[in-house]
Specification:
- The structure holds 2 protein chains of 2 kinds.
- By secondary structure, chain A is an alpha+beta fold.
- Chain A has 6 helices and 6 strands, in the order E-E-E-H-E-E-E-H-H-H-H-H.
- Chain A has a 4-stranded mixed sheet, sandwiched between helices. Chain A has a two-stranded antiparallel sheet with strand order 1-2.
- By secondary structure, chain B is an alpha/beta fold.
- Classes of the chains: A alpha+beta, B alpha/beta.
- At the A-B interface, helix 5 of A face helix 3 and helix 4 of B.
Chain lengths: ~250, ~500
């Protein structure tokens, strides 16, 4: 149906009815020149709203859209449907990615609150959690990468002169408040990154300090040993020099 | 230390913005006097109410241009500073032969693929000639711009498809407020490009655009003289400026250290300027910008919102009256239960229809509704007409290539303290009038700082622009060459 550009490199393909493959989006397209059929509108609304109470309805320039998570229905003239289907599949992917990043960030908040302590005081107990903290930091960077990949498509400027598909895309992006959501996610990511960056710094400092302490201890032990050896040598020498030595004289013939 | 006396002739947006900027920036004591011929402040910004229903509508400046995505947007900053909320406006569709054309798909259906190709070729050509950055560029550059030349009709004539040529002409007609033959290439192209959000977008002030002058007036500490028609402006022997006005048949004369003429260009001719040099300079100034453009506004309150679902944006273009903008005035007030539509009739059609009575104009406007909106003709509750003939400029900035200093101080030799502020000096928009007002206000602030001691005893040296260069240059860079258009 459509190909998402690099770095996404994904394609939306139509599945045949009865396919066992799981679909992320169910798209129902209805070719019709009229968008004022009350019965059709009610049935489409019911279909999209199943499990999607927040589904949106948009009437725009001869097209009727029902937009919900995972389910989208569109009514438009037959000639307008292919580009509309493509743009809806593309937007559904971006919306899904955005929603997933939002969900994962939401789920990560309790961990963040629990992990905030080591940002201020990193001790032996925190050191034992180092691998877990590093894993969370990696997950966070993964979310940032996912967001960064789709942001250029979400914030793409309006097209002029427009096509119906570009207008629908712009309208849906606005209705879904995608630019605001991106801004909010980026702010949340900054908070997460700051905390985990600080924790990471504390962990590095702690390890460096601990290594330093160990090294100091080793040096102290060596120095102590050296001191003992020196003392032993001094004492040994002192004992040796205290024994009276015989004086010998020689006379020449 | 004596306070500077500054007289401002005109209580429209230009006068109020000048007063507000002066009050904000001047560190030196000054006293402002505003002469207003009518009984209200705000000029072409007018948000009246209907008599029989509780609803307001824009009878004057209909929208404000947003350049904030490109660079500084002083007007948007001012509106934020005044605490006024805004509503975004959009409109992409035009009615062609009774059917809406909102995008290239519609255009292909109505006029065929060659028409789409012709429109895209014209679009590329327009964008090649003016980039968004150039669109925003300084007004100074306007002076040497090769596109500031007559003959936008020749540009349109180069569109090979006559239907597309007609479509483009009608689509931008109500923005131009004039015909393609009587405007510049730059102005015509800008009015086409402004539909692209890469160049600019539109918004209105929630509750009505008149909130802007109202809030400015509430903050300006000035002696406002309502009902004063200024008849004569001249110079006194000691170098000050004199203003003679008539109020209720009685002549009143005042003297000032500086005077700012904040009038529409057409109204400058109604003032007598004393002295041959000043009279000649002001006549030349008026002639340089004498490109009158016209608007008529017909606004109708209906019993039902019969366009629901059929007109989904803030406005659309109709192919009647040579190209007419139809506003969904109710979209400005989402909570309002009174549906209102407003027709903006422009250019020669407005001039020709100007002689008709209000009832005739209302009938013409309703008759111009496309067939798919025709059922509204029987649902009228109340209708109002506002006439703005000659109130705007068809070639703002003129063809003369005058610098900003020349535009704002027409006679610098003997009357260096007579300034002119006007939207027609920049672009006939609210954005332009603010640019003009701030330009003059900064100039006056510089003069005050430099000549604070007994200003009337020390008239400005002839041709002295030292302080002007120092203070106005940074501001000049900020002034955009905005699209030379206005919607009233």
């Amino acid at each position: 149906m459509c190909e998402l550009p690099a770095p996404l490199n994904r394609r939306a393909v139509a599945l045949t009815l009865g396919s066992t493959q799981a679909a992320e989006l169910e798209l129902l397209s209805v070719p019709s020149d009229s968008t004022e059929d009350a019965d059709l509108t009610a049935r489409l609304r019911e279909w999209v709203s199943a499990g999607n109470p927040a589904a949106q309805v948009i009437t725009f320039q001869g097209a009727l859209l029902f937009w919900g998570t995972g389910r989208v229905a569109v009514v438009a003239a037959p000639s307008r449907l292919p580009p509309l289907e493509a743009v809806l599949a593309e937007l559904a992917y971006y919306e899904g990615e955005l929603a997933d990043v939002e969900r994962q960030l939401g789920e990560a908040w309790p961990d963040l609150e629990a992990d905030g302590g080591p940002a201020f005081e990193f001790d032996e107990r925190s050191a034992k959690q180092r691998d877990r903290l590093a894993k969370r930091f990696r997950q966070l960077l993964g979310l940032r990468a996912r967001l960064t990949r789709i942001v250029p498509m979400l914030l793409t400027p309006h097209v002029y002169p427009p096509t119906l598909a570009s207008q629908v895309s712009e309208r849906l992006r606005e209705r879904s408040r995608m630019s605001h959501r991106v801004e909010m996610i980026q702010e949340q990511l900054e908070v997460f990154e700051r905390i985990y960056d600080t924790v990471s710094q504390r962990a590095s400092d702690y390890r460096a300090n601990r290594k330093g302490h160990l090294l100091e201890m080793v040096i102290i032990v060596f120095l102590a040993a050296q001191t003992l050896l020196v003392l032993f040598e001094i004492l040994t020498n002192a004992t040796a020099t205290s024994v009276p030595t015989a004086t010998t004289t020689t006379t020449s013939p | 230390m004596r306070a500077w006396q500054i007289g401002i002739v005109g209580g429209g947006p230009g006068g109020l913005m000048t007063a507000y900027a002066l009050q904000k920036w001047a560190n030196d004591p000054h006293h402002l006097t505003i002469f207003e011929v009518g009984d209200r402040l705000g000029g072409k910004i007018l948000t009246p109410s209907f008599q029989t229903v509780s609803a307001t509508y824009e009878a004057g400046a209909a929208e404000i241009y947003d350049y904030s995505h490109i660079d500084d947007d002083p007007l948007k900053e001012l509106i934020e500073e005044l605490g006024l909320p805004i509503n975004r406006m959009d409109g992409s569709s035009a009615v062609v032969r009774n059917r809406p054309v909102a995008n290239l798909d519609d255009l292909r259906d109505r006029l065929g693929q060659p028409a789409v190709d012709a429109l895209l070729a014209f679009d590329r050509q327009a964008k090649d000639q003016i980039t968004p950055g150039e669109f925003y560029a300084t007004a100074d550059e306007h002076a040497g711009d090769p596109l500031v030349r007559p003959g936008f009709d020749a540009v349109l004539a180069a569109i090979p498809d006559p239907a597309v040529r007609d479509y483009v002409a009608r689509f931008i007609h109500s923005d131009l407020a004039t015909e393609a033959a009587t405007t510049s290439v730059a102005y015509g192209l800008q009015n086409y490009l402004m539909n692209d959000q890469a160049y600019m977008s539109l918004y209105g002030i929630a509750g009505g655009n008149e909130a802007l002058p109202r809030e400015l007036a509430a903050r300006v500490n000035a002696d406002v003289k309502f009902g004063h028609r200024v008849t004569t402006v001249g110079r006194t022997p000691d170098g000050r400026m004199s203003v003679r006005a008539v109020c209720a048949g009685k002549a009143v004369e005042s003297t000032f250290d500086a005077v700012v003429m904040a009038l529409p260009n057409a109204a400058i001719g109604g003032v007598t300027f004393a002295g041959e040099r000043l009279s000649r300079a002001m006549a030349g100034h008026a002639a340089d910008f004498d490109f009158p453009a016209h608007y008529l506004r017909v606004t109708v309150a209906f019993r039902e919102k019969f366009w629901e679902g059929r007109m989904t944006e803030s406005y659309c273009m109709l192919d009647c009256f040579g190209g007419c903008c139809l506003y969904d005035e109710s979209s400005r007030a989402p909570g309002s239960d009174v549906p209102v539509l407003g027709w903006l009739i422009a250019g020669e059609a407005a001039e020709a229809l100007g002689a008709k009575t209000d009832d005739e104009l209302i009938a013409d406007a309703l008759a111009a509704l496309p067939e798919f909106l025709g059922d509204g003709r029987e649902l009228v509750r109340e209708a109002r007409v506002h006439r703005w003939l000659g109130a705007v400029n068809a070639v703002p900035g003129g063809y003369g290539g005058h610098s900003l200093d020349q535009r704002h101080r027409p006679e610098p030799v003997d009357h260096p303290r007579l300034f002119v502020v006007g939207d027609y000096l920049f672009d006939s928009t609210l954005n332009g009038v603010l640019d003009s007002a701030e330009y003059v206000a900064l100039w006056l602030v510089a003069l005050m700082a430099d000549r604070l001691e007994q200003p009337h005893d020390r008239p400005a040296p002839v041709g002295d622009t030292r302080d002007v260069d120092r203070f106005s240059a940074p501001v000049a860079r900020r002034h955009r060459r905005t699209p030379d258009r206005v919607r009233v």
